[in-house]
């Protein structure tokens, strides 16, 4: 007997999560859905549901820094497909999502029927992009690809610390947010610099920002 498929829906807007759930149910009758509204919640969901068939990921949700969340999820769970669902509809953003390991990119403006079609295609092992984009993919720079590969070596906690560094938080503030000692944060920062092959917090932040994406100028970013 075939088990029901399971899909993780990751978006910080409840209304859009509901719309995605509708599209998912339309595409996969009997599907089990798991919802998450922050990148940390997505990571926890993926750990709890490591048998999930697909993650639908908004790259602009809290805790995410552009493509860093996508890269990290793909590195930690290489067998679990991730489809980016975003209000950022620039061609280059879509191309980069695929280069960083996404199995597809669905614009938030797409009608439910198209979203359902994309989900079905990816679950069947295909890659999905709007047709006009799929015809002209380009590779990301070698430098960005190298950084993306290094990013995967971070632990989940180190990844959270790096994201907080990009937000300009000091060690003391990060320690407070994560409820750990400042010495622990210093140790994490040291490990982050070593793994990313950089020599200062500033260099680490600049490297992380290369994976950034300007948030869309829409309500449902």
TrEMBL record:
InterPro entries, per the entry: CheY-like_superfamily (IPR011006), EvgA-like (IPR051015), NreC/VraR/RcsB-like_REC (IPR058245), Sig_transdc_resp-reg_receiver (IPR001789), Tscrpt_reg_LuxR_C (IPR000792)
Alphabetic keyword roster: DNA-binding, Phosphoprotein
Gene3D superfamilies referenced in this protein's UniProt entry, alphabetically: 3.40.50.2300
Protein name per Swiss-Prot or TrEMBL: DNA-binding response regulator
Residues the record lists as 4-aspartylphosphate modifications: 58
Pfam families the record matches: GerE (PF00196), Response_reg (PF00072)
Xref: SUPFAM superfamilies: CheY-like
GO biological process: phosphorelay signal transduction system; regulation of DNA-templated transcription
Domain (Response regulatory) ranges: 6-123
Record PROSITE patterns: HTH_LUXR_1 (PS00622), HTH_LUXR_2 (PS50043), RESPONSE_REGULATORY (PS50110)
PANTHER family the UniProt entry points to: HTH-TYPE TRANSCRIPTIONAL REGULATOR YHJB-RELATED (PTHR45566:SF1)
Domain HTH luxR-type: 147-212
Organism: Marinobacterium nitratireducens
GO molecular function, one term: DNA binding
UniProt keyword Phosphoprotein, yes or no: yes
Keyword Thylakoid: no
């Amino acid at each position: 007997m075939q088990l029901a498929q399971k899909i993780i829906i990751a978006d910080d807007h409840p209304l859009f999560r509901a719309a995605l759930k509708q599209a998912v149910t339309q595409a996969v009758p009997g599907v089990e859905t798991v919802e998450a509204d922050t990148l940390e919640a997505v990571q926890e969901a993926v750990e709890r549901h490591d048998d999930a068939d697909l993650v639908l990921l908004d790259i602009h949700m809290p805790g995410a820094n552009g493509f860093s969340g996508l890269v990290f999820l793909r590195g930690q769970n290489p067998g679990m497909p991730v489809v980016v669902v975003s209000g950022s509809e620039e061609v280059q953003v879509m191309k980069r999502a695929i280069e960083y390991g996404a199995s597809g990119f669905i614009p938030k403006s797409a009608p439910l029927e198209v979203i359902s079609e994309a989900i079905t295609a990816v679950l069947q092992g295909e890659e999905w992009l709007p047709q006009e984009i799929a015809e002209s993919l380009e590779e990301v720079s070698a430098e960005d690809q190298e950084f993306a590969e290094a990013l995967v070596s971070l632990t989940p906690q180190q990844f959270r610390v790096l994201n907080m560094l990009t937000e300009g938080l000091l060690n003391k503030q990060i320690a407070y947010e994560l409820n750990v000692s400042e010495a622990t944060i210093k140790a994490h920062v040291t490990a982050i610099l070593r793994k990313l092959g950089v020599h200062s917090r500033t260099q680490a932040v600049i490297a992380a920002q290369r994976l950034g994406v300007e948030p869309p100028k829409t309500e449902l970013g």
